[in-house]
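Researcher: Predict the fold of Serine/threonine-protein phosphatase.
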Amino acid sequence: MPSAPGHRQPGSTVLTPSHHHPDPTASEGSPSPPLSSSPPRPSRIPVVVVPPSSSSLPPLSSSTLSSSPQSSPPAASRIPGLRRLCLRRRRGCELGRRVGEKLGFRRMGTAGKGAWVVPAPAYREVEGWEGAGDDAPGYRCGHSLTFIAPTKGHGPRLILFGGATAIEAGASSGLPGIRLAGVTNSVHSYDVEKRRWTRMHPAGDPPSPRAAHSAAAVGTMVVFQGGIGPAGHSTDDLYVLDLTNDKFKWHRVVVQGAGPGPRYGHCMDLVAQRYLVSVSGNDGKRVLSDAWALDTAQKPYKWQKLNPEGDRPSARMYATASARSDGMLLLCGGRDASGTPLSDAYGLLMHTNGQWEWTLAPGISPSARYQHAAVFVGARLHVTGGVLKGGRAIEGEGAIAVLDTAAGVWLDRNGIVTSRTLKSSNEHDASSDLLRRCRHAAASVGSQIYIYGGLRGDILLDDFLIAENAPFQSETDRVPRSENQNRNHNYSSHSPSFQQYTNNSHETASGFSTEKKSIDMLTEASAAEAEAVSAVWRAAKEASAASSEDSLSEGIGSESPLSETSPMADDLDDGGSLEPDVKLHSRAVVVAKEAVGDLGCLVRQLSLDQFENESRRMHPNNEQSYQSRRALNRQRSPQGLHKKVISLLLRPRNWNAPADRTFFLDSYEVGELCYAAEQIFMQEPTVLQLKAPVKVFGDLHGQFGDLMRLFDEYGYPSTAGDITYIDYLFLGDYVDRGQHSLETITLLLALKIEYPENIHLIRGNHEAADINALFGFRLECIERMGESDGIWAWTRFNQLFNYLPLAAMIEKKIICMHGGIGRSINSVEQIEKIERPITMDVGSIILMDLLWSDPTENDSVEGLRPNARGPGLVTFGPDRVTEFCKRNKLQLIIRAHECVMDGFERFAHGQLITLFSATNYCGTANNAGAILVVGRGLVIVPKLIHPLPPPINSPESSPERAMDATWMQELNIQRPPTPTRGRPHSASDRNSLAYI
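Model: Structure tokens for Serine/threonine-protein phosphatase follow.
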């Protein structure tokens, strides 16, 4: 059990000069010991601003940091009463303004003052934690506390390392200092779920005892650098505490070339899940202002000294640097060379061209401070404790502060901070008294902030504190819980591997086109997309072959198809003696083809026997040969940003394509929308567990008009529609090819935010940057949002895609996925073990099969065959489907990924259904689109729509839209859609792409 909150150490002999390393920056009479006697508090994870491409947080929301919360936004704001930017312009440079805006520094109007912002939280002691003997860290200051996300064998943990365990009074000043002989290198692990501290004894050679070091989490590893100990300054070597497979082991990382050098009181954090960025500190001679970055995805490892543009922060030590999940690094506070505490904050951003830039954050912080702690929870930076000049501890409301980067304001316990004069409160705030400390450490776990230890005057602390991000969450921070959100998924797990986006994708076209020209166009697609998927395949193979022992990048590792201990198919009950629960209804619902007149909305039912297009997937004639071709983030508005999107786009009966192709959201709003949705996806399991009834949608590919038609004909997700009694499941491929990918993905994300437990999205192969950069989505973003904002938004969408779930189970009897089971997937558990965020290069064969594989041409072709989509890909026969279903006690596989003439198609004697929801794919296939409605009794009803010509007077056919009308055709010429299945018969196999 925890001991007393504070303990005064008995006096001890002052260290001899040879072991004493005075702090050259400490001012005389400073209660904060000279550096020698007091190791600098290990600054919390360094804050680095990530490249826009990797930003994942809400591009700070619509409101912004405001030095004057009373000012009202201009009428020209996109969202009335909300958006008005107040970013400080750097030397009048437009680039500085745009960088600040992307960091989210925006002014907040009075409308949001009371409605949207939540004051800083109250802290209390953690109750009932366990840790007997040396298992508990005990009295500690100058240590680090780092969060490690859940692994397969363990829940979320906090890793406490190093720090000083004793203090002594200064001989001359009578002020407390850190006794360097009491500095330790012990490691303690706190199990968040069990509330238990355990001292760990990792294998390998540990780093030397140290305090005032820096630490950052990289997947299931913690990286430590720098600090100061009994022997003086620690080296700048990187030490990695590897928790992979729940076995603690120390590694020393070999880094080539010059690095930051020995220092303490500096900051380090992992930015954009890729770059370790180290900022500021003291090298024993002077206070530093430099910044260094190490690319964890590039071997050999090298430190690169950054030369950022913009408003550079002054030299400082004992600051904090915290990386927001979107990649923004925020440097906060610190102490300059004269010992003066600082109150400013800077964001560090990397542009797409590799150039880094500092931007000063506007706003009024409650107090200048150093030796404090800071940690992000969502878009809110929680800052606690610290000292002022002379070592006087910050008291009152200033001890607890929050920089709400979404609302754009500093907050204390009373609300928005309008001046640096600390506000008084009529009631005594015990929480503020608890945070009257320095040299403590903080970490966030989900929405909770944990704080351990520190120094209060001459009292060393061993208490353990906790706070909730907010009594209630803002719209962008709140993540509603559902059946899919089990305990272990309440904590975000960031994969350290940063190869940001790889390929997933590939096309599918369905049905025979009536014109040979259309077939030719579809045939030509093979080469272009095979080129793309080949690159993905090569990357995946290289990743799986790379050694991971000394790698800082955490890969998912290839899972074996089945362990030897897995039950064999013969041992599993396939329910063969029972009546199957899943049945395909004998009739499908179809909307008539007529576009006008009284028959325009005619709905009829056809017997499945009338669907003669089984196996009529889009593929070239057998005699045709394949010609290889070179293929080329705000706080919510009064109604909520996602509600704005829904109100503008969810118009099933009367949606019309905009006459002006300009998209109605800007990049900041896109970032906010992505952030809010991403927080939900992060807490969902990789395989969703759903209950019937469910509507299942196949590929949409930016054909927003088809989505509206399906909603109009068969119900739409709204309280005025059918969302109260049926769920919606979308199987991926939301973007590319069609003209309205932006509308499609933004509406689906907005619906996910509005109905998190009823709208379900899984990932398709086009939800990958390397693919949607080639097949239309990137081009659409640039065309409709401008080059700079378009690229930023496109990058942000792709970051979100890495968090999407990968499959869904309905009533544990139907599995839904985008592609198929390929050669490697034999159990659902293999999919469940895939950790997100994930890119194709670290996903190995399992992820490739899941998103890219297809069934064979028909039920007569069994086993595994080469896939015309590209080398390394396969098609799987009906025998594989039967075996998979039997082994996993499933009755049906529903997948998308391929265009089929009737919108849906049966395979493997009805054990697999391919579903495609976009009509007339790529403007050439002339296929129908379909959805599947899975009823409570697991009876499945297909519902179809046929392709319709645009209304005569629609914007799509107006003269001024002539160029827009050819948008898809031009893309098809440059990137022809791959025939949904290039599966020639066995005699012609050598004509397939897999052999070219």
